[in-house]
Specification:
The protein is of the alpha+beta class. It contains 4 helices and 5 strands, in the order E-E-E-H-H-E-E-H-H.
């Protein structure tokens, strides 16, 4: 089994410590795990790898992204990062804000606006 490094031990190039944009505190001893394993540790659920990769590669509908590190060509994360992702997503989802328009309504409005612009020659 592969031995995983602590987040503060991740090195790049000239030996400088690389932290994600959200910054891991230097006093945190964060164990990095493969993505699915970290989610399983945090939630007792095992999502598909593609699901967790999507969480880490692009923000979800609430603008939240899973914090990850790339070590030796592998994408790793921590249980703490998974919990922070879940907490941030839940908090954003619980704001009670509902979409002001459905996709169909937005598309209809767009088509109407485009038709008006074309009618005006713009």
């Amino acid at each position: 089994m592969l031995a995983y490094r602590k987040a503060n031990d991740v090195k790049q190039g000239g030996g400088t410590v690389v932290n994600s944009p959200q910054q891991v505190r230097s006093d945190e001893s964060t164990n990095l795990l493969p993505l699915v394993d970290a989610v399983r540790e945090a939630t007792s659920m095992r999502p598909a790898l593609s699901t967790v990769l999507r969480w880490s590669q692009k923000p979800n509908q609430h603008g939240v992204r899973l914090q990850t590190w790339k070590v030796g060509g592998r994408r790793l994360t921590s249980v703490e990062a998974v919990r922070a992702y879940i907490d941030a997503t839940t908090q954003a989802a619980d704001t009670g804000q509902l979409p002001t328009a459905t996709n169909r309504q937005r598309n209809d409005a767009h088509q109407k606006a485009m038709a008006e612009l074309e009618r005006q020659g713009i």
